[in-house]
Structure formats: C-alpha cells, structure tokens
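[audit] Reproducing an earlier prediction to check determinism. Same input, same settings, fresh worker. If the tokens differ from the archived copy the diff job will pick it up downstream; this log only records the rerun itself.
[audit] input (187 residues):
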Amino acid sequence: MTEDAEQRNRRLDRAVTDCAEGRPQGIDAILELEGPRLLGLARRILIRHDLAEEALQDAMVMVWRKAAQQRQGDGSARGWIYAILRNRCLTILRDGARLSSLSPDELTRMQEARQELVSDDDWKLLAGKGRLGECLDALDDPARRAILLAHVAGYSHGEISARQGVPLGTAKSWIRRGLASLRECLS
C-alpha cells in the first residue's frame, strides 16, 4: 500500500471516529475523500443519477448513526463505508424490482391509495391526543407533511419533492430537521 493510500485510510478512520463521537466534520471528510467514487459506484449499480444521490445520502446517514459500531480491527473504514452504500443500492434495486412486477393498473391503484393515506388534517387522527400529536402539531406544515408522506404513506424523498413542488434537497432538509425536532420534543 502506498503512503498516499495509507494516509487516506488513516483520514477515513479518523472521519468515522469523528462521526462516532458526534462531530459532523466526519461526514464532510468522508465525502471529501471518497464522495465522487461513492457516487460513481452508486450510479454504476442504480444507473439513475437521482437514485444514486439518494442512496449516497441514505448511506451517509447510516454511517453517521452506526459509526460507533465500526471497529478498526474488523476491517477498514473504507470497506465498511462502501459496504453500507452497496447494501443501500441493492435495497433500492430490490424495492424497484417489487414495483416493476406489478401491472400498470395495480401500480395506479397503489399510487391513488397512497395519496389518500395522508390528507392535510387527518394526520391528527393518526397521531391521537398524546405527546406525538402535540409534537407533530408544533412542526411547521411543510416539514410535518413531508414526514407524514415519508413515514406514513411511504413516499421516497424524490416523490415528496415532486408532490410538494420543491427541490429534492429542500424536501430532505424538511424531513431531517422535522425528525430532529420530533426527537427533541418527544425526549
């Protein structure tokens, strides 16, 4: 292994440690060191650029959440990160394969049923009168709607951005910040 590769691996190990200790610069370092290659791998597996971006973002969230579980003696941080991305891509492919096995009529019925799952005011019935309802009520409407579309109706981030007429990054930010607010409110 060349000195440059060894140095890169040490920086990745340090970045995963930063993630495990709750320092956001860990994710920044991973993306700086491996981002283009990670996105390239995802694009080779998924073909579509939008799905590759979504897979990469989901993988980085998993890296952030599970960084404390990665042990240096169990293998390289680089291999661990790429395995997470690969598994996320394969999950997306499996989910797509299930949908492609449905007839066009079944897909249409399923889409229509999903749209009726979360109306603008019916979320209060889903949440009930407990703490969750209070916390959801405290969220701003776009964030609440995006969270409900994702976690109740099962929409992807891309579908949510299209339904709400906003860029993909905006929809993802609403969901991420809304979930953080919910966690804080419920704890």
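[audit] rerun output stored. Observation attached for the diff report: The two ends are 47 Å apart (CA to CA).
[audit] end
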